[in-house]
């Protein structure tokens, strides 16, 4: 029971969003748009979190920048375009499929195919153990004799 409680307590910090109350916009519609945009932007420090989930200082600055642009009247696409122009497609958690990001999209396929080819080559290179040669009648008789002696011994 204590283990389960400890695991649940360990997971609690991951459930909280990094957006601080002083960052939130008073207009709920603008705040919802800001959250939607920031959930699709990568934290450039953490790289595996959205800026909405990250506690990094740069993520906070980017969240504030998103909100400033929205208050200035930019559309969601304009805010995202501004950040992509400034930081490149890497800032998007789901980068667009285009020539510059082709390797990014195809890398998992290449890794999978390469791993499969390596496993196939490894399995083809391994030869099955050669079966033991049949015993000659003399060897078979000697083996039987040894097994009988061992069976007759006590213990």
Which short descriptors sum up this protein?
155 residues; mainly alpha; Helicase, Ruva Protein, domain 3
Mind explaining what this structure looks like?
- This protein has 155 residues and is an all-alpha fold.
- The chain has a domain at 26-94: Cytochrome C biogenesis protein (Helicase, Ruva Protein, domain 3, Orthogonal Bundle), CATH 1.10.8.
- Helix content is 59%, strand content 0%.
- It has helices at residues 2-15, 28-38, 57-71, 76-87, 102-125, 137-152.
- Helix 2 crosses helix 3 (57-71).
- The longest helix is centred in the last third of the chain and has 24 residues, at 102-125.
- It is elongated and about 100 Å long.
- Residues 12-16 have low confidence and may be disordered.
Describe the protein's topology:
Layout: H1 2-15, H2 28-38, H3 57-71, H4 76-87, H5 102-125, H6 137-152
Helix pairs in contact: 2-3
Summarize the structure.
This protein is mainly α and 155 residues long. It has helices at 2-15, 28-38, 57-71, 76-87, 102-125, 137-152. α2 (28-38) packs across α3 (57-71).
């Amino acid at each position: 029971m204590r283990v389960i409680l400890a695991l649940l307590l360990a997971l609690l910090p991951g459930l909280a969003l990094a957006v601080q109350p002083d960052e939130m916009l008073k207009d709920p519609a603008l705040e919802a748009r800001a959250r939607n945009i920031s959930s699709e932007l990568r934290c450039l420090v953490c790289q595996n979190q959205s800026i909405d989930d990250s506690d990094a200082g740069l993520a906070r600055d980017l969240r504030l920048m998103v909100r400033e642009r929205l208050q200035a009247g930019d559309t969601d696409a304009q805010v995202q375009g501004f950040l992509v122009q400034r930081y490149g497609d890497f800032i998007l958690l789901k980068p667009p499929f285009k020539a510059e990001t082709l390797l990014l999209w195809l890398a998992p396929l290449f890794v999978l195919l390469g791993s499969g080819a390596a496993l196939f080559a490894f399995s083809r290179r391994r030869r099955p153990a050669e079966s033991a040669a049949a015993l000659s009648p003399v060897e078979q008789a000697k083996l039987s004799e040894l097994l009988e002696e061992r069976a007759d011994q006590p213990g």
